[in-house]
Write a structure and sequence with these properties.
alpha+beta; Endonuclease I-creI; globular; binds zinc ion
Length: about 190
């Protein structure tokens, strides 16, 4: 997580009239993060607090359209792997060939966990966009042992509701979920 000094320094550059792009290049901070600080600069300091899914009364993620988009990215090109101390890393492989995907992916991750930092790692033909959180398995209960494409993926009823209301999205490009075959994306009534 970026400290307040860093946040203020980046915003000061923006208020001087600099573009998000140039501030991002100079500071190494993503445009999505700087944009989110324009809305709210203070971190929520809620890293120990539950996510909407693990509260006493579970609810949907706060930004359902962005969540629907991130769910599609996770199911098609993402993975969740356990790290230390109950923290999981979500990684989404964003193909270089799809302009805007990396930024859209980062914005969607930040909408789900606004106070976590997102990192980008360049790999062959794609950028791996990653973020650590204890709550990825709550937000993506499809996480489990084995490779995603080798097992049946069933959406939970609350996820189906979101996807029904926001059919995959916030990004104008073709949605990666369309690449999944029907047997991979199964109906929950047929078991998990
Ligand atoms: Zn949670």
């Amino acid at each position: 997580m970026y400290d307040m000094d860093t946040r203020k320094r980046a915003l000061a550059l923006v208020t001087q009239g600099r573009s998000l792009n140039s501030v991002s290049k100079e500071t190494g901070i993503s445009r999505a993060a700087i944009r989110s600080w324009l809305v709210r600069i203070e971190p929520l300091m809620n890293t120990g607090l539950p996510c909407p899914r693990c509260r006493d009364a579970p609810g949907p993620p706060e930004e359902p359209a962005a969540y629907a988009y991130l769910l599609g990215l996770y199911l098609s090109d993402g993975c969740i792997s356990p790290n230390r101390k109950g923290v999981y890393i979500l990684r989404i492989a964003c193909a270089d060939a799809w302009p805007g995907l990396i930024d859209a992916c980062e914005a969607a991750i930040l909408s789900a966990r606004p106070d976590n930092s997102v990192c980008r790692v360049q790999a062959q033909g794609h950028v791996s966009v990653g973020c650590s959180s204890k709550h990825w398995p709550c937000l993506f209960p499809q996480h489990g042992p084995g490779k995603k494409h080798e097992r049946t993926i069933a959406l939970e009823p609350w996820q189906q509701e979101i996807v029904g209301a926001h059919p995959w999205g916030v990004h104008p490009g073709p949605h990666p979920l369309r690449r999944l075959s029907h047997h991979q994306l199964d109906h929950p009534s047929r078991g998990r």
